[in-house]
Write a structure and sequence with these properties.
By secondary structure, the protein is mostly helical. The protein contains 15 helices and no strands. 80% of the residues lie in helices and 0% in strands.
């Protein structure tokens, strides 16, 4: 293909994908279930069983994380994304009418498979789209813009979900399923970026899985970024997905107010992060490593006092750090991994975070059977972990990279 024709094609591909990714961010963010899923499950099962359902979601996603990441690298991100939304939509439709522990287990398996198919594929497609047009340096800005769209949409969905639950308890789940179905249709409009893909065979499939996991630790820089990314996820993701809801429901906040609280907190957090990215705060590698660990080391121990204002404050700062992981650390990790193995490598990161998440939920399930203070004990333990484990590691990495230029080419980094 002549140079000018190729350049024009790459530009059209980039514009097309960025447009539909922004549109996709609107509909895939319509999680009307966010403020009410715990309440829906507690109508039929205990809080300990709710935690077990979360473990099943994570375990199924964990088992399938690497295989589905390798599958996305082999058959294409677009197909993986479309299948993920279809499966997730079906799971939400079923969740709306689940009324026993076994039925919630079935929906959990659907959510796990959908998460596994989506986790590495979508981020890899975004980065490879930009890279094909030589715009990979804009990953944080693009990701943050789609995150803003996502958070405005999820704000609306969260607030409405909490309100409609009081009158139509099944409606939040049904509407979330419809939104996922529409997301699947939108994803069909994406164009697959050109990557070094291979014909799908069992041999290539197994080799791709192995190569993707090795990608995390292929050189010192990749190892440092991967380890830090995993640790930040381990200390934020359990709270972002589960324990914020557990705590607010346990403290007696109703579904309508949970929707308002979570909606405004998440929107405010992403606005703050957007401002920090525009001001180029994260161009300083010392801030990239130190800020997340300092925030978590302060707010997580405070949440042990377990009062509604403190929990809201904690949820805000944890949401901020979690957004940093996606938008700031995600850019660095993508720059470390080769295009061919990127989706598998990102799935490997998710798998490691899920392992930590499962451990936290398992500990909570055990504690909840013997004490009424299980949630705040979990917060305290995570706070202590941030202080004595995450903070020292981040300090070492900040010192290591503060006077060095981060190598943005994975092939050059491999030689270091």
């Amino acid at each position: 293909m002549p140079g000018q024709v190729l350049e024009n094609y790459n530009q059209r591909l980039c514009r097309n994908n960025l447009f539909y990714l922004q549109l996709l961010s609107v509909f895939r963010a319509l999680f009307f279930m966010v403020p009410v899923w715990v309440s829906m499950e507690l109508r039929y099962i205990s809080l300990t069983q709710v935690a077990i359902i979360d473990i099943i979601i994570l375990l199924s996603a964990l088992i399938l994380e690497l295989p589905t990441g390798a599958l996305a690298d082999l058959i294409g991100r677009k197909k993986s994304i479309s299948i993920a939304f279809l499966i997730t939509a079906l799971a939400y439709f079923l969740f709306a009418y689940a009324n026993s522990f076994p039925w919630f287990v079935v929906t959990a398996l659907g959510f796990g498979l959908g998460d596994a198919l989506l986790s590495g594929s979508l981020e890899a497609l975004v980065f490879d789209t930009l890279k094909q047009n030589q715009q990979e340096h804009t990953f944080s800005e693009v990701n943050n813009k789609t995150s803003l769209i996502f958070n405005y949409s999820i704000f609306v969905a969260i607030v409405l979900g909490g309100m409609m639950y009081q009158y139509f308890p099944r409606l939040p789940s049904i509407l979330t399923g419809c939104a996922m179905l529409i997301s699947g249709l939108i994803s069909l409009r994406l164009i697959e970026p050109d990557i070094d893909s291979e014909k799908f065979t069992l041999k290539n499939y197994l080799r791709q899985t192995k190569m993707g996991f090795k990608e995390l630790f292929k050189n010192k820089q990749a190892r440092d970024i991967s380890v830090f990314y995993i640790l930040v996820g381990a200390f934020t993701w359990p709270i972002v997905l589960s324990f914020k809801n557990f705590a607010l429901v346990d403290l007696g906040v109703n579904e309508k107010n949970i929707g308002l609280i979570l909606g405004f907190v998440s929107l405010f957090a992403v606005q703050i992060l957007h401002l920090m990215i525009r001001k180029k705060v994260f161009d300083n590698m010392k801030i990239v490593f130190l800020l997340p660990s300092i925030i978590l080391s302060i707010v997580l121990p405070l949440s042990y006092f377990y009062q509604i204002p403190i929990i809201i404050l904690m949820v805000f700062f944890v949401a901020l750090v979690s957004s940093m992981r996606w938008n700031v650390l995600g850019k660095l990790s993508n720059q470390c991994y080769s295009s061919k193995n990127r989706a598998t490598a990102i799935s490997s990161l998710s798998m490691m975070i899920s392992l930590a998440y499962i451990a936290v939920l398992a500990l909570f399930s055990l504690l909840n059977e013997y004490t009424e203070h299980s949630i705040r004990i979990i917060f305290l333990l995570m706070g202590l972990g941030s202080i004595f484990f995450l903070l020292p590691i981040s300090w070492k990495l900040a010192k290591k990279y503060q006077d060095r230029i981060f190598v943005k080419n994975s092939e050059v980094a491999d030689q270091l």
